[in-house]
Amino acid sequence: MNSIRKQQGVVLFIALIVLVAMSLAGVALWRSIGTGVLIAGNIAMQRGAVTSSDAGIEGARTWLMAQGPSVLNNNQPRAYVSSWDERFDATTFDWDNLGSTPSAADSAGFTTQYVVHRLCSLPNAGHNAPNQQCLTVSVAGGSSGRVAGSYGIMPLSGTTYIYYRITSRALGPRNTVSYTQSIMY
Fold first, then answer.
1. Using CA atoms in the order 96, 97, 98, 101, what is the torsion angle rounded to 10 degrees?
2. Residue 154: its pLDDT value, please?
3. pTM (whole model) above 0.90
4. Residues of the domain holding 105
5. Cα–Cα distance between 178 and 176 in angstroms, integer?
6. Number of domains the chain is built from
7. I need a labelling partner for 169 at 20 to 30 A (CA). Which of 15, 20, 73, 78 fits?
8. How confident is the model over 94-106, as pLDDT tens digits?
9. What is the pLDDT at residue 42?
10. Residues 119, 136: contact at Cβ < 8 Å?
11. Cβ-contact 179, 167 below 8 angstroms
12. Strands 111-118 and 80-81
């Protein structure tokens, strides 16, 4: 009977040690899961920003396709520069005053803006002006006319197209910012 009474205190002490160890393991597991959820949320926000920024590129393409040479040969008050800018930096660009009007927020809460640069050396001059240098593509052959807003239709032969650089910025929740650039003609 003496040996039973001595062992009861030892079992309680071991049970408390096991309980503390299990509590510490539970806290470590909870923190590990919380970090994984934060990382997954950040990746989802980044992908959403890139997708919204692509919508800004498409908006700029639509605007660009609707303009004639009189607009495209000259700088515009907002969102269009008729020459390349070697010092252009999307992170320091004055988006509020020089970028396009911000789009309405999409379903993910992102707004987009864009700026288009015509890839020519001289501003406010046609692509064939004296001393003008433009990045162009000339089409050697084709069988049909180019239609605005359509893809996959071959242009008429002997046509020269000027390249344009479109930079889009998407702003969203959690101070998410994404910049996307595309070159098109």
1. 60
2. 59
3. no
4. 2-184
5. 7
6. 1
7. 73
8. 999 999 999 988 8
9. 81
10. no
11. yes
12. parallel
